[in-house]
Design brief:
By secondary structure, the chain is α+β, with helices and mostly antiparallel strands. The chain has one domain: Jelly Rolls (Sandwich), CATH 2.60.120.380. Helix content is 18%, strand content 29%. The chain contains 3 helices and 11 strands, in the order αβββββββαββββα. The strands form 2 sheets. The chain has a 6-stranded mixed β-sheet with strand order 1-3-10-5-6-7. Strands 2-11-4-9-8 form a 5-stranded antiparallel β-sheet. The longest helix is centred in the first third of the chain and has 23 residues. The termini are far apart.
Length: 274
């Protein structure tokens, strides 16, 4: 059976299962996907890879039925732990780059991601807009549509342990606040959020046909979560691969750049205390 047929079957089955459960009490907290082999620890020179993943073509954005906001239960969630501060690159590439426009968001969590709080209601929204069924994948933690994820939020369980949104990458469509359920903007390209100022020294990357890549410079040790899905409803969909890599700093960089890196780090840490 080829991958396109497999993808269609997975999407159809997911839709049937969700339509049965969401109307009454949603599907509960979101379910984590696994990297190949089940590993979650990221160390220098190491990579975490998840192959043959599948979501709908508009799970991240571009679904008019959800006012272009994200669908938590149909996207893919991955957790990983950075063991020591290191440059970290996240890449998502479709097997068929013409048929899928990936997008993803990176969150900082306190401990391993717990999946959020089930049956959470924000601001009296209707069924189609209630979290976590439908949520804000491009906002900062604490914004409308993210409260089901937020650590310490009113009514949240211990499974809600997200503390910051670092950034998101979008190779698909753009939507603006007037179009979305939670008033979020959905931009293309690489977009830094509030958590970037606290947990990394810089964010860079690029998006292209069927691919999105982000590098988080000197990412702090700790737990992170990725949410990913499709961002163009006009595409037919394709399996994709998620790769998270820790890039070791060359020895020469330590010799010539350690003073500068130390200065930047000290400046960032000092700013946290202000």
């Amino acid at each position: 059976m080829n991958k396109t047929i497999q993808l269609a079957i997975k999407t159809a089955l997911a839709g049937v299962a969700l339509s049965c459960s969401i109307s009454s009490a949603f599907a509960g907290t979101v379910t984590l996907a696994s990297f190949d082999g089940g590993a979650t620890s990221l160390t220098a020179g190491n990579s975490l890879i998840a192959t043959n993943q599948a979501t709908t073509a508009n799970t991240f954005t571009d679904n008019p039925g959800l006012n272009h906001s994200a669908w938590a239960h149909l996207g893919k969630w991955f957790k990983f732990e950075v063991i020591s501060d290191i440059d970290t690159t996240i890449n998502i590439t479709a097997d068929n780059t013409a048929n899928f426009s990936p997008a993803f968001t990176v969150y900082r969590t306190e401990g391993a991601w717990g999946g959020g709080t089930a049956t959470f209601t924000e601001f009296g929204k209707s069924l189609s807009a209630r979290t976590p069924h439908n949520f804000n994948a491009t906002g900062n933690i604490g914004d409308n549509g993210t409260l089901w994820m937020e650590q310490g939020g009113a009514g949240n369980t211990s499974d809600s342990n997200a503390v910051a949104t670092l950034a998101y990458a979008n190779s698909g469509q753009t939507h603006h606040a007037m179009e979305t359920n939670w008033g979020e903007h959905v931009h293309t390209g690489i977009n830094s959020k509030d958590g970037a100022l606290t947990y990394t020294d810089g964010i860079s990357g690029s998006v292209g046909m069927g691919t999105a890549e982000m590098t988080l410079t000197n990412l702090d040790a700790g737990w992170y979560t990725i949410y990913t899905g499709g961002a163009d409803g006009a595409k037919t969909g394709s399996p994709f691969t998620v790769t998270v890599s820790a890039v070791p700093i060359p020895a020469t960089a330590y010799l010539f750049g350690s003073g500068l890196i130390g200065l930047l780090s000290a400046r960032r840490k000092a700013s946290e205390k202000v």
